[in-house]
Design brief:
Length: about 350
Amino acid sequence: MENKKELRTWLDDLQLDHPLVIAGPCSAETEEQVLKIAHELKDTDVSYFRAGIWKPRTRPGMFEGVGALGLKWLQRVKAETGMKIATEVANAAHVKLALEHDVDLLWIGARSTVSPFIVQEIADALKGTDKVVLIKNPVNPDLALWLGAVERLATADIKKLGVIHRGFSTYEKTKYRNTPEWQLAIELQSKFPDLPIINDPSHITGKRDMIFDVSQKALDLNFDGLMIETHYDPENAWSDAAQQVTPSVLVQIMKDLKIRKETDEEAEYNNALNTLRANIDVIDNQIIELLGKRMNVVDGIGTLKRQKNVSILQSKRWNEILGAMVLEGQDHGLSEEFILKMFKAIHQESINHQEKIIKK
Ligand code: PEP
Ligand code: MN
């Protein structure tokens, strides 16, 4: 991508002394609802008012958005509050209508980013636009699809680009609606350091109580902004009711978040240090999660051994594992001494687990 620095001028031009905030309801429901929320968000840190007009529902038969009619409501929001307006586009027809209604920021949803055909169609329809275009991560944790979408939009000469990290769906149930997989966002950031990255804690958590913590984590990882679904009556929202917050809760969240600013050299140093530390926290959590998963498998083996009445310690198998791991460690710059120590500890914990099972 050429002129990478240009990618973030739209954000720098806003001259914010806080992260960019995009807020508004998941869906535009009625003209009254849209305007009421917008007026409550006026004179806050919110720069862009969001509302879904066309809603990509996973299953049919749910509220699928009010359609083009809602664009008129967004225009009223802009005229009455001065906030810029934002909506999701999922095909060329949406892009045409959104541009005709002077929508300032268009985003590509997670269900669209998975399809290079649809991303290309949207890129072609947007060609050369001076509007801001943000690309949500694809629903599945595939960095290449996300990068590919960024490249398609950049190639279509869209200068005001950015991405939104909204988490990834998993088969396994987790405490998140869409697991953050922070390392993917970090990797994308390192590939395109000048591409603004916005976090969407609403779709990551699916629960309003968890929004603050995910937002703080994103800021610690040096994200440029937040997109937070906001509704004056979240419980009765027509879509995503569990994750929306009221405008006053949003204001409180913004007040409570610790925001790091790059001003002088000292601040920049602290900033870089904090980002690296946040990366380490993410990785440490993954290590613990993986070790937990490993012990679950070990428990399964323990149960099998109990049924068959076999001994716990099987040194041949263990020596094979150690040998393989020492070699694997070499590929990752880890010393033999460290690998042996670490696996000894893991092995001991596995034996303890199996002993508990066998004695049961
Ligand atoms: C949304 O922002 O309302 C939305 C549908 O998000 P996503 O594409 O992340 O599911
Ligand atoms: Mn939503």
